[in-house]
Write a structure and sequence with these properties.
The complex is a heterodimer of chains A (139) and B (69). Chain A contains six helices and no strands. Chain A is mainly α. In chain A, α4 runs antiparallel to α5. The two termini of chain A are 27 Å apart. With 69 residues, chain B is mostly helical. Chain B contains one helix and no strands. Classes of the chains: A mainly alpha (139), B mainly alpha (69). At the A-B interface, α1, α2, α3 and α4 of A face α1 of B.
Chain lengths: 139, 69
């Protein structure tokens, strides 16, 4: 929420100070936006998956619900993804303003994207999954 | 002819404009530096919040793996 306010302020500032926003943060700022996107994606997946586990009051009937073994598998994958996201966020936070992009950033982002694809593939088809994928910008 | 007569006045205005710009430049630089510093701090705050939430969500995922096994 605070981030959106800051971005709105930055846009307002751009109107007043032309090049101010372009120079704010640079590579570090772009990387921060990437981290925020990755985190929001993983969080949305985790929150949705938790609602779909078979036997829970929020879950749809089989075969649309997530069976327990698949829930375990997805939870393990999400655990690894949140670990990678935390490392990515720490790396970006520790990158000084104006410094070149650390080489590890694209690798970490790529690893997270692979896990996201795997988890979405593991989720059984359901209206909730369709909504989730649309929310994430997929088809 | 009319233009040539007014040229010195135009040059004077340009010089005055440059003086005003030069006088204001340190203030503009200070505003830009403050904006850059503020933006970097906002990013750092956001990243710190994400690092904490990542750890919390990882723990939840780990617990989920064990609770259902």
């Amino acid at each position: 929420m605070r981030y959106r306010r800051a971005k709105a302020g930055c846009l307002l500032g751009a109107l007043l100070l032309s090049t101010a926003c372009a120079s704010v943060g640079g590579v570090r700022h772009v990387a921060t936006v990437t981290v925020v996107s990755a985190h929001n994606t993983l969080s949305a997946i985790q929150d949705t998956e938790q609602l779909l586990v078979c036997g829970r009051s929020t879950a749809p009937a089989a075969p649309a619900c997530v069976p327990i073994p698949i829930n375990q598998k997805i939870s393990g994958e999400l655990s690894a993804a949140f670990d990678l996201d935390g490392r990515l966020a720490t790396l970006v936070r520790d990158t000084p303003v104006g410094a070149p992009q650390p080489d590890a950033i694209p690798t970490l982002v790529g690893d997270i994207a692979q896990i996201v694809a795997k988890v979405l593939n593991d989720l059984p088809s359901s209206p909730q999954k369709t909504t989730l994928v649309q929310r994430l910008g997929g088809k | 002819m009319g233009f040539l007569n007014s040229l010195p006045a135009i040059l004077q205005w340009l010089q005055l404009g440059k003086k005003v710009f030069d006088a204001g430049k340190p203030a503009l630089d200070a505003v830009l530096a403050a904006a850059a510093s503020h933006g970097a701090q906002v990013d750092t705050d956001e990243l710190n919040a994400i690092i904490l939430d990542d750890a919390k969500r990882k723990a939840e995922a780990d617990a989920e793996t064990q609770a259902t096994s």
